[in-house]
């Protein structure tokens, strides 16, 4: 099984998924942890808005709308 390098969740296309490994921004990490986004959780990109303003993602069992800036700090493996 090949090892995959972590990538920012903002680079994912709808339908792609992975496991959250870490966060790159301390301030946004605190906010994401407050709403239940944690390392080890499964993230799947459901869809993105037509102009890329917000992204609809499913993290474990909850569905969230996140900004691209927030997704860019989530490193997924």
Q: What does it look like?
A:
The protein is α+β, with helices and mostly antiparallel strands. The chain has a single domain, classed as Ferrous iron transport protein A (FeoA) (SH3 type barrels), CATH 2.30.30.90. Helix content is 18%, strand content 40%. The protein is built from 2 helices and 6 strands; from the N terminus they run ββαβββαβ. It has helices spanning 26-34, 68-72; strands spanning 7-8, 17-23, 42-48, 54-59, 62-67, 74-76. A 6-stranded antiparallel β-sheet has the order 1-6-2-3-4-5. A hairpin with a 5-residue loop joins strand 3 and strand 4 (54-59). It is globular, with a radius of gyration of 11 Å. The mean pLDDT is 92.
Sequence-ordered SSE layout with sheet pairings:
Elements: E1 7-8, E2 17-23, H1 26-34, E3 42-48, E4 54-59, E5 62-67, H2 68-72, E6 74-76
């Amino acid at each position: 099984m090949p090892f995959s390098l972590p990538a920012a969740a903002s680079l994912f296309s709808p339908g792609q998924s992975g496991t959250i490994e870490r966060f790159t921004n301390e301030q946004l990490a605190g906010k994401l942890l407050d709403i239940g986004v944690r390392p080890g959780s499964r993230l799947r990109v459901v869809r993105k808005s037509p102009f890329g303003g917000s992204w609809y993602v499913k993290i474990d069992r909850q569905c969230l709308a996140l900004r691209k800036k927030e997704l860019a700090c989530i490193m997924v493996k």
